[in-house]
Specification:
heterodimer, A: mainly alpha, two-stranded antiparallel sheet, 5 helices, elongated, B: two-stranded antiparallel sheet, 13 helices, about 75% helix, globular
Chain lengths: ~130, ~325
């Protein structure tokens, strides 16, 4: 039994997505950290406060929807924020690409299963945080 | 200026810790976080909620970083992985909501104790794992056909194609749900449970199990990440440093994995994990004021227990090998 060529293609695409996702994420984090050390503060928060292990400053103060404004203002923290969110989305895109191969192969069972996985993922991302804070 | 240098050094030292965790995590298929959380809390003094937050982020990085290598080598079975993710993502939601409640109740000692138990429990599936690279053949069941669990890969060490047929898909799904809960709860990939689900329940070859688990870990961790983010468990300075560190570590680890035998992997991971497991357990009991002891005594107990456990396991394995040779 040979591995179908479609499967081989998707394996290569998956590998590429994962690599590009991780590398761009890490580059953004590194740029953010370097900017942070150069500027010494970000968004009115001092670097020693940002670097503290017992910092009261954490991710809950950084809204991912403000990433674009943050990047335009060259705010180091938003470079790191974008880097971390690119990382979070990297494995999710792999579920998408797998679903595409299931669709081209007409594999209904696995199309349904990847849809359930995506539903769980987006429910956790979009619905739950707002449910907790209301 | 001096304070700036201190902060740069602090960043690099967290990065170094992340790299060490990344190597071990990728070799064992557990994900770097299993080592990262004890490292950050016990040796860096970072609060547990920031440690688990950094760890969850790093779990995604280590998973994606090493999985890119594995999928290219066509060892990981993405189809089986996606199917089992139904249970892990659901479990991760339950787990991360539970952790929010635990923190709100100021009962973080529970996380330490649970972490210790999970760490020590990770040893059990590894002890019971057969020493051979290929699983014993099992008769395919009804799930093999319906869920398309057959596959094959080329083993570079054995220099041959290995084909396999997974069984008991339903049992794996149940185990994966708990793997997801643990992942959301402790900010780890819970690769040990994933390995248990695929190696023991589904009877997949070890290499397929560890690599598929590594790929799945990222999706599970992504599920909990957003809840962690809005709850403020992610400290950007720490999470950024560990993410970079574990990727470097995972890259080195994935290179090593394709070269060394399973036996070597097991001994490195036994010794370190058992020490960290006991240490976390004692730290949790200390924080709960159940068992208040000095740090040095705590460490001595952990080392002693780790040595006893590892020697016992080593002797057991050697006896098993001798029995095989005699037969």
């Amino acid at each position: 039994m040979n591995v179908p060529s479609k499967q081989r293609d998707i394996d290569s695409i998956t590998s590429l997505i994962l690599r590009v996702g991780v590398l761009s994420s890490l580059s953004l984090i590194i740029v953010g950290v370097i900017l942070l050390f150069i500027r010494g503060s970000a968004d009115g928060v001092s670097i020693s406060q940002i670097a503290s292990f017992h910092s009261t400053f954490n991710s809950s103060y950084l809204n991912p929807t403000h990433i674009v404004q943050g990047l335009i203002a060259v705010d180091p923290l938003y470079f790191i924020t974008l880097g971390l969110w690119v990382l979070i989305f990297t494995p999710i895109t792999v579920v998408f690409t797998s679903m595409v191969t299931f669709i081209t192969a007409g594999n209904r069972l696995y199309i349904a299963m990847s849809l359930i996985v995506l539903f769980n993922l987006f429910f956790a991302m979009l619905a739950i945080p707002s449910l907790i804070h209301t | 200026m001096t304070s700036d240098i201190t902060l740069i050094l602090r960043f690099l030292s967290i990065l170094g810790g992340g790299a060490m965790a990344g190597i071990l995590g990728s070799l064992t298929g557990l994900g770097g976080a299993t080592v990262l959380v004890p490292l950050l809390t016990l040796f860096y003094g970072i609060p547990i909620y920031f440690a688990t937050g950094a760890s969850l982020i790093s779990t995604i990085a280590t998973s994606a970083g090493s999985a890119s290598g594995y999928t290219k080598h066509k060892i990981a079975n993405i189809k089986i992985g996606v199917g089992l993710e139904i249970a892990t993502t659901a479990g991760a939601i339950v787990g991360s909501l539970t952790i929010v409640a635990v923190h709100e109740a100021h009962a973080s000692w529970i996380i330490y104790v649970l972490f210790g138990i999970v760490l020590l429990g990770s040893l059990i599936p590894t002890i019971q794992r057969s020493s051979s690279e290929e699983p014993l053949k099992r008769k395919p069941d009804w799930t093999t056909r319906i869920f398309q669990l057959a596959g094959e890969y080329y083993d570079t060490k054995l220099k041959k194609k290995i084909s396999y047929e997974g069984v008991r898909w339903w049992l794996a799904e149940i185990i994966m749900f708990f793997a997801g809960v643990i992942s959301g709860l402790l900010g780890i990939g819970s690769g040990a449970l994933k390995v248990l689900g695929m190696d023991w329940a589904m009877n997949l070859p070890m290499k397929v199990t560890t690599t598929t688990s590594n790929f799945m870990i990222g999706i599970t961790a992504a599920t909990g990440s957003s809840i962690y983010w809005y709850e403020g468990y992610i400290q950007l300075f720490i999470a950024g440093a560990t993410a970079i560190g574990v990727v470097i570590g995972a890259y080195i680890g994935s290179r090593l994995l394709l070269k060394i035998t399973n036996k070597n992997i097991r001994w490195i991971f036994f010794s370190i994990l058992s020490f960290l497991g006991v240490e976390m357990l004692l730290e949790g009991l200390d924080k709960a004021k159940v068992l208040v002891i000095a740090t040095t005594i705590e460490e001595m107990i952990s080392i002693a227990v780790a040595i006893i456990m590892i020697s016992g396991l080593y002797l057991k394995t050697r006896r098993g090998e001798r029995a095989v040779k005699a037969a």
